[in-house]
Amino acid sequence: MYKLIIRPVLFWFDPEKVHHFVFSSLRIISKIPGVSTLIRSNFEISDPRLEREVFGLKFKNPVGLAAGFDKDARLYKELDNLGFGFIEIGTLTPKAQPGNPKKRLFRLKEDNAIINRMGFNNGGVEEAVLRLKENKGILIGGNIGKNKVTPNEEAVTDYVICYDALYPYVDYFVVNVSSPNTPNLRELQDKEPLTALLKTLQQRNEMQIKPKPILLKIAPDLTNDQLLDIIDIVKQTQIAGVIATNTTIARGGLHSLNQKEMGGLSGKPLKSRSTEVIRFLSEQSGKAFPIIGVGGIHSAEDALEKLDAGASLVQLYTGFIYEGPKLIKNINQALLGQ
């Protein structure tokens, strides 16, 4: 039904407007008595064989929602009804910011892909915290970044502010230094500044009575030498793991007319490179740390490929938009051999 009727109708309209429309619609219908239960019964698979324990956390299944979809923690409760094992909110910044000028989100239908140059648009971390206080048992990851106006030399302060604000309300953290849509942000992936940033956060984390896992989200555009640096940085800083990968600035092999739009590319064209990065990190590190695999998952087979390459968990974003919520169920059924 989704791919035959709902998606074609939604795809007639501007993707950012559709995103807000879907948010509003799902929130409204979920308030109708019995609807949330009905949605959950259609999509959620509850089976102890799907449970995963990764970096000290227990996931009810290994299929999560990637950051960027529910930036401000507005819809995590409704999205949980669709069967996700965990929800990652953000990217959040200390202060609210509008992001880049519109139009900034583009469908590449012929490629089953999306280009975005959103630019960390969000209402600020404190606004999200107010909503997260209402959480009752949903496993939440907090993806954090820096404000656009904050120079890289002061970026650590922004990440610390977000860490401190979110600590009581999220189960793990993701340090986002790999988005291509904030000027100069990816420079923080260089070994020296990245090591300093992660050490600062991890030292602050270790001061807590109960430290929470800190993960690093990396770009798919890193070279093998840079990936080896990432392995070394994870070892040095003792963070919990890596999310591979963010969107790409590469544009090879695309067919859509709007392929030259600036921004990060996600979806099917990213599938192979994301898997390559996962496999490289897993093999070269000797499986020394957990990896969350994301990028180009549009089928159960795509998810299994990521897990076989060395991922402990997977996340969806563009595949969720193109394939619909049944994709979550399909992956979990495949994991159960159904």
Write a structural description.
This protein has a single domain, classed as TIM Barrel. The mean pLDDT is 97. The chain is globular, with a radius of gyration of 19 Å. The protein is built from twelve helices and 13 strands. It has 338 residues and is an alpha/beta fold. It starts with a helix and ends with a helix. The strands form three sheets. Strands 3-4-7-8-9-10-12-13 form an eight-stranded parallel beta barrel, surrounded by five helices.
Short description:
With 338 residues, the protein is of the alpha/beta class. It is built from 12 helices and 13 strands.
Q: Mind sketching the topology for me?
A:
Layout: H1 2-10, H2 15-30, H3 35-43, E1 52-54, E2 57-59, E3 63-65, H4 76-80, E4 86-92, E5 105-108, E6 113-116, H5 125-132, E7 140-144, H6 155-166, E8 172-176, H7 191-206, E9 214-218, H8 224-237, E10 241-244, E11 264-267, H9 271-285, E12 291-294, H10 300-309, E13 313-316, H11 318-323, H12 326-336
Parallel strand pairs: 3-4, 3-13, 4-7, 7-8, 8-9, 9-10, 10-12, 12-13
Antiparallel strand pairs: 1-2, 5-6, 6-11
Helix pairs in contact: 6-7, 7-8, 8-9, 9-10, 10-12
What is the CATH architecture descriptor?
Alpha-Beta Barrel
Distance separating the two termini? 21 Å
Output the CATH homologous superfamily.
Aldolase class I
Based on secondary structure, the structural category is: alpha/beta
The total tally of domains equals 1
- Indicate the multimeric state: single chain
The H/E string reads HHHEEEHEEEHEHEHEHEEHEHEHH
Walk across the major sheet and give the strand order.
Answer: 3-4-7-8-9-10-12-13
Mean pLDDT across all residues, rounded?
Answer: 97
CATH topology: TIM Barrel
How many helices?
A: 12
The fraction of residues assigned to DSSP E strands is: 15-25%
Cofactor: FMN
Subunit structure: Monomer.
Function: Catalyzes the conversion of dihydroorotate to orotate with quinone as electron acceptor.
Catalytic activity: (S)-dihydroorotate + a quinone = orotate + a quinol
